Amino acid sequence: MKKNLIFFTLVLLFVSCKSYTVVPVKSTPSKSVEGGVLYALPRTEILVDVTFRYIDTSSAPFVDYAEEMIAVKPTMDYSIVSVAIDSRVVADPNHYYFVHPRKLSLQVDANNLLRSVGLSAAEAVQVNAQNTTPHNLKSNLSNSTISPQPSNNLYDRIDTFYSRNDRPGHPSLLASKKDSRSLRQRAQAAAERLGELQERRQELLDGDYETSYAPETVRLMLQLIEQQEQQLVGQFLGSERLETVRYVVDPKDEKAFIDNQTVTLFYFSPDQGIADSTDNGAEAVRCNIRCVNNLRNAARFVRYRSGGTSNDKNPNERNTLKYRRSEQADVSVFCSQFRYDEQLSVAQFGPIIELPNSKIQALFSPATGDLIYLSK
Asked: What angle, rounded to 10 degrees, do the helices at 215-237 and 183-206 form?
């Protein structure tokens, strides 16, 4: 009877000390687990934003007459003007865990990543404000235009009159008909107008005008003439544009790839932009990821000395909360024309570490998934 009482007391003591239960979702528990929370270890994806410059001739109705009428041959050249390298943290599908928290509070974000342990929502916000800084992406994904787009050709406009009862787009009276001149005739008129503007600009620059203009007036007139010239030239040559394309690289964490891995992002041709690999004039743009291995010794210690002896079962199978300590990696995007380098944190390159199975307070970085605060 006394032995049974001692055994029962030890069981109660063990249960009271075990503040939570963790089960890997890939395991097969001997019995059904109680209700709880799912969370995943972080995994880093590399984001490469490539900005291309090209000439858009889709809004240039007179492009076929450019060389003949304004003595300029349209070009379709593409170029890469910038590359921005950054990262984001996502849930690792191979490392999901089911947690029965008991009396331990857990905070999990919308991506199933662990954000805090043992902290209330208000405490997590307060501690997070003291220990983290905003993580801003370096790239700008908005499309932009360098030169103004040419306006619609005025010959295509139809003057209209609306009465009080007319609906938008359904006027009662059309005051004029659509111009019937051919595309070539309209191109010729635009070229003549461009010549007139260039002559007028030269007159203003030379001071060859009868009316006396103030210097401010001359500057304003020159600006207006330049805007009209750009619009007319755009109808022949198109407009210069910038476009950013994002590529996402998922670094492999197998031992054979961590030290050095290279992936091909795309093939680039000055004539076509993003091209097919079979294009003879296309060149591969690649991304190389090389682990710095700053945590080599720390990872060895965690693997063999943390949580028991080396004869223990896999730490991934032990019923404890786990997190990743990200490792630094050198990331390069390159081809024969350029090279861009950045050093980023990669979660899957670092070790998996266990949290104490007791009442603790912990906070994790939303940018990298690293543990940034731990207290009992």
From this structure: 150
